[in-house]
Design brief:
559 residues; mainly alpha; two-stranded antiparallel sheet; 22 helices
Amino acid sequence: MTLAQAPGSGLQWTELSIFIVLFLLVSVMGFVASRWRAAASLDHLDEWGLGGRKFGSWITWFLVGGDLYTAYTFVAVPALVFGAGALGFYALPYTVILYPIVFLPALRMWSVSRSRGYVTPADFVRGRYGSPTLALLIAITGIVATMPYIALQLVGLEAVLRTMGLNGGGIAGHLPLLIAFLVLALYTYQSGLRAPALIAFVKDGLIYIVILVAVFYLPSKLGGWSHIFDTSAQALSQPNPNTGKPKGSIVLTGTNQLQYITLALGSALALFLYPHSLTGVLASRGRNVIKRNMIALPAYSLLLGLLALLGYVALTAGVKPITNAATGNADSNTVVPVLFDTQFPSWFAGIAFAAIGIGALVPAAIMSIAAANLWTRNIYKEYLKRDASPAQEAKQAKIASLVVKFGAVAFILFIDPQFSIDLQLIGGVLILQTLPAVAIALYTRWFHRIGLIAGWAVGMVWGIIMLYNIPNPNTKRAHFGGSALPLDKLSIFGWHPFSGSAIQIYPGFVALIANLVVAVIVTIIARSLKVFNGTDDTEGTDYHADEHDKDLRPIGAAH
């Protein structure tokens, strides 16, 4: 049994060959998917963008799981544990508390969307409040927050390609990535949501095999978990040359416990507000499918916990991140690929790299479709062509999905990938500000639409200001340096209520609180002045509709 060559020693032909074969396999599946459970025509957003709204429990489980647990999750979470220690495990409690939080709202969103023909969360907001302006803000927020998320799938894919020796500089260095995304763009254009739904079966099967082998094989090879934790604790306790402080810790410290809690809760509240997350829900056949999935999806949390532990395994194995030839900086996203490359036989490392690479394509396809649906329904049809036919909507969405994908590629080509990571951080803070208009509105229409717009604006502006004021001494960045805001820097119109405190907090959570406070105050004022609050197109029974109800809106009906 031969191990893979050391990273940087040239092309890893065995790994690359296996990667290419599996990539071609899923590409063929992507094109064939247009005929899988297809209607007479895909020229309707119900069909192209939501897979006919008829996915059952298994398909939905793989689709939503493939959508939420992305290549960046598999690459970045262990990389964060590798660099900072226990803080990286925030992703575990947030995925545990996520499903109980979204269980009921997801059911109500599916029902009202199925009843009224809504394809996007902004469609729901438009119908609930009769406000094209509020719907436009929700749509723009969703698109802006999704773009860097797609770019981050490329970061994960490039980390794998770099580890296999494809680490050139300039445009030529990105050529394999461009080819991969061109293929992705073509089969998504043809097959719509059916393509990632079908490919998700292969992606998740490969991921489970690789991770289960890794968490049993690697510890036995490196001296067991006790040795791994001891070695990791010692490595993280070493001083960072840029700050003089320890690099991290395998337990939370007094300063980052609040950050851990608010980041986990804020992330849980935000995840199903992302348009691509709701796309998987709306593609389900009925409420029972969603119920089963909310019960079964926490199985992915177990997988995520095992993945995170690979950060400690990499510390024990002495992994060194590969230097990005394009930027000259060490690419921390290569930690897990390098671990697999140096510790597994070449053939198995190739399978692992294919799993991560395919794991980038599935969510990237779903995200681009979700962003395209937002553009088509809530900008193109609302403001540019009100009389657009279903076929024209589908055509516009297909074109928009191409634009979104190659816009994400532009992030990687022309911007340092570290900056796109910062943009994803901003995206999380931004999408959280849609919670009052989208999630709370599923239960009550008490908020005034003017209050929701005012709250959204305050949350957006303050959230970005807080992120801007976070430095990163490790990378010597003065702004947008992370997601940990020291309470000492929390300023309310120049007033520092926690001056001198080193305790950290997640700025998205703070911005959401400000959003809600402003929305409540403006709503009270607007209601006292009896300002018109728009017309609600929905009815109480819409929020409880199910797949077999009489007079349910036909799939593929004109909107």
